[in-house]
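Could someone model zinc ion with this protein?
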Amino acid sequence: MKEFWEDFCKGILCLWQFPQTFVACFLLIYLHDHDDIIRVYSFGKRNKKVIVSRRNYCFSLGEFIFVSEKWNITKVITHEYGHSLQSEILGIFYFIIFLLSVSYYKFDKIFLSHLRQVYRTRFYYNLPWEKWADYLAGLKRKNRKISPAVFIM
Ligand SMILES: [Zn+2]
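Reply:
Sure, complex below.
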């Protein structure tokens, strides 16, 4: 009976994350058709599927973590694992975080490009949804503090 309820909960979780999974499936087909998938493996207690590809991006959609081959390192995968846990919690509302991240990426390119990369990275991982992803995945980062002196350059 316990197995039944575990499977039932997995089914509900699939429905809850359906939009992400749906988009991820199309992306998987696209990557497969272009022969861009290098490796697939499971990660974390929740067995998320990590799709290592030749494309230059890292993000989570539903049960899948898409990562470029050059960013296939434990710290990045762990952070993305945190995003996939956010997806489980937020369901369809996870797309808000997804859009915020994409928007911030553009904001960074336009308004923060004059700052050193180390500060830009620090800003990024101090954003509330990024901190939350780290927290959920149990990822601790050093040097989270941002000095006001960064702006005087
Ligand atoms: Zn992130």
